[in-house]
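hey can u check if this looks right to u? its 696 residues, i copy pasted from the old doc so theres a chance i mangled smth
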Amino acid sequence: MRALSILALALCVTLAAASAIPERTRKVADKDLLTKQKNILQLLIRVHQPTYIPELQSIAKSFELEKNTDHFSEWALPYVHKLCARYEQGNMLPRGQVFSVVYKKHIKEAVLLFNVLYGAKDYDTFFKTAVWMREHFNEGQFVYALSVAVIHREDTHDVVLPPPYEIYPEMFVNTQVIHKAVEAKLQGKLGETVTINAAHVDNSSAWWLTYPKVQHPTDLLKYFTEDVGLSTYHTYLHYEYPYWFSAQKYGEKPAPRRGEVFYYTLQQMASRYYLERLSNGLPDTEPATYDMHYEHMEAYAPHMRYYNGLAFPSRPEDLTVSNIDLFDIEAVHKVERRLQNAIDLGVAFDTEINKVALDDKDGIDILGNLISGNKDSINKKFYGNIYMYLRLLYGHITDPEHEHGVAPSVLEHFETAMRDPVYYRIVERILKLFHQYKALLHSYTRDELIFPGVKIENVETDKLVTFVDEYVFDLNSFLAVASDEEAHKLDIRVRQPRLNHKPFSVRVTVDSDKNTRVGVRFFLAPKYDYLGHELSLEERRQHAVEIDRFLYDLKSGKNTIERSSRDSNAVVPDQTITRVLLKKVEDGLQGREPFYVDSSHRHCGFPERLLLPKGSRQGTPFTLFVAISPFSGESMETHRAYVSCGAGFGYQKVDDKPLGFPLDRVIKNHEDFFVPNFYAEEVIVFHKKQEEANKA
């Protein structure tokens, strides 16, 4: 009975979240959009097998790409011809093989698929091409190319992708769960709902997944690192900013601050991970050294397998990094030294050997593009792509020469990288370069920080409480079916425990001597280290997480700004599960119920549930830092989650302040920094059982 109640509650929460669209951004989907939405959902169901949907089968058999070249933009025609030739020659990654974004050959082929999809002049051609691709090309490459195309094409702007953990659940749940799902299907459980418990949990524990006891300190963090929402955020972040994507080539407006967004998302990710470690009494993360003689890596076992049966490789204890067949460690050191030299000199060289200054204004953006190795890098050939190099170096550590057919590791996929503790060590190594640059910038002066006539008098919050609830999603896409009829009868789900928090509000009392529009920023920073030593302001700054940023119109006199955590521009709510989304679309098409679309919707965004770190039962102290500054820009109201995902391609820069302002530079003097328009307040995060949280 309790299981049924939890399941019903989870479904109600999902439905409520799906319908909770702000009135100002809500619109009713027309039949054209509903048809597109249904098309994309059908394309991404059970991608490992040929389609069983009659309409798609008909298109897949009849559509001939080479006879439809007049329906593609001129720039895309060479790619159309190239794809046709490769298809005829069988010269693409076969279906059933594992696709990885860090393998050069794999990503080149995936980009070829994207180019053809993106180059379609109209939606009908785009859709038919996608149906044809789904049947004939590698499913991993297809999902990647289609997902990126849907996010970036104008005619699919309002289409919602299904959650990646329902497209390929094997990359989000462990092998035991998948085994039970297969077992349930083999037992012929059709026409009934089968829900698999991922864990039997005690909400007072610090670990909640499928591990009966902690065997290593990092096990304490698996509720965070293996959260499906966190991995979804990381996946969509890279779908929105593919490192190979050129705005100029594809005719989009450049993504404002692309390099700075790369830096800031990594910095925020590392800081958020630090707050979670702190909640569990663990020290900071040591940067990777990639020293083959002295660095010994911690072990990691993902307990997952690919659809084709290959296991995600485990990493034994004390394994050392070594040269791989693609490049050697010295090549990575060489690239890193070039970046360090550019930072120290304050100058980088473009492909024409022209000097490009890494100044206070644009330097962080230029440097971010260099380090990420994206298409906006001024000299990718010279400065490389150290972020991907390190993921390859550590990702294939168990089979560096590719001699034994070991499958790609979790580090070699965006969907799984955040599960591995070594990923955060790689991030810390990358951040050392950015910290080196930031340390050379002058600290903000009091005049640069003060907002004359504006004073924050008080900050208070509701009680901050986290708890563990349960989330149910479908495993059906992993399970092959013989027909559309069987697909409709199969209903196998998984119930996973996850971290959540009670909604809370922050109230800021402000006195202003004028009517003025301001930018308001909230940061959550640690107060003590894991040993209980109080951190300096500079140390807190380094690990601060921006939990909201918004505009506010101050009136002359006393103002009370009240902001709900649900309105945060750093996060997005849970995605609507595919089953519910399909039903809503069908209801809309049949005229039974309107299907509402949120025009501010965005796939990318940090999970709303993880806005707060876990804290502890006795309460973990943090510092809530509030900054109010004059607003300088056009608008900060672009779409949701611009704090955690940037503005994105096709949008304008939303603010002239550096990302992370005013905590983005070294603080040398406490007195000079704390101006009247800044305020710091101690807050305590409590972790409770769910029933206790409801009473708190």
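The chain has 25 helices and 16 strands.
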